[in-house]
Amino acid sequence: MRECLTLRLWAVVAAATSIAGLVPAQWVQETPTSSPTARVAAAMDFVPMNGGIVLFGGAAPLINGETWTFDGTNWTQLAPATSPTARFGAALVMDYARGVGVLYGGLATNISVPPPTSETWEWDGATWTLRTPTANAGPRYRYGACFDGVTGKVVMYGGATSQLLIPPSNQTWEYDGTTWAQRTTTGNPGPRERPAMCFHPGLGKAVLFGGTNGSGVTDQTWLYDGVAGTWTQVAIGGVHPSARNAAQMVYDAAHGVCVLTGGQDSGGVLGDTWTFDGTKWAALTTPSPTIRDHMLAFSPTTAQVVRFGGFVAPPNTTTNETWSIGTAPYGGGCTGTNGAPTLAATSALQLGASWTLNVGNLNPVLNLAFLVLGAAPVPGVDLAFLGMPGCAVYTTPDLLLDVVGAAGSATWTWPVVAGPIGVSLYCQALCLDPAANTFGFTLSNAIYATLDG
User: Fold this and answer.
1) Is pLDDT larger for residue 400 or for residue 109?
2) Which CATH number fits the domain that encloses residue 346?
3) Where in the sequence is the domain holding 412, given as residue range(s)?
4) Rounded to whole angstroms, how far apart are CA atoms 109 and 105?
5) Stretch 34-47: mean pLDDT
């Protein structure tokens, strides 16, 4: 029986091996033949018109005004007909409603007297155009920014208005392509400089983490509802990233989570990686260099989060390295009689060891789940049509394994004795719960794991 199970599992592994573009489970250094020079605090985002990631500016310590694209393999420097002047500390945000990248503000000098700029530039995939909105947020750099997929506007929060000892801004601004408008919001995170910010489509809200509040760094997580104009602090239970600024965060659309990396606190530069699913934070165990003021973007063409440059300590130097990563937990479960079922790996998928998965929040009377293992991820197929509202499938159903537990929890263990290093498996728990919905089942979040030697 065990031999049969092993053969079926490795049939799934073999299928996964044949699928191109699977996301690696740890930071992997890319080896482009060309690359921008080392720099910090450039502006970077994925731009569909270019089919890849676009980077502008940065400092190292000289400030530059270069425009580069990364196609997943190599960096290419562009020569647009017009371009913003050299600057750092700005953000590039892809405005999907209008099909342009938006860049605001930034600082053009390292000396303390001139303020940041208040310019608004747009990138159309070929050249930069200086816009003249009827209003703007004033001089600003090192702010948080993202595109709100619900309101169709670029959102900007906080930022420094000067290099002098002036508290950072606590303002929320939105750009609709014609003008910037300050939102009068209910609540706000307070003054913030160098926060991390991204938009979570599953929540329909922007997520903001950390930053300097004028007196120190914070570990707070906030959500911004652009429709209601409300900021709400998330009551985080359990583990979460430590207080920091100069971290970076993007939304990983392949796995439905925000990914946060690096930053610095009073003790120095940090090297951890976290995911946020809209409710809770989870730490990834992948090793990473301690890094701050780097650039981060998600590439849907490669299903990877891409990191470029930044300040690495040690050895206390600015880098021009390009790295990529995928994430382990993704998606979310749907509520049953014992809450939303959870799926977690309590050990690594590693040759010569046992891979253990735990399903929690099962119906405590039935205590039965089926592990759905697949060779590839699925982008959250809604199962409301089956009578499972709020439930979504996140993996191909290549193998089904029953797991029986007790007291609302079940554990499954598989001794890993052979297999190709580097292949990924995807898994989700289908949980028996007749009272939960008309179909009688709920689904957990999904996970994936890559086989290590």
Assistant:
1) 400
2) 2.20.130.20
3) 2-19+330-450
4) 12
5) 97
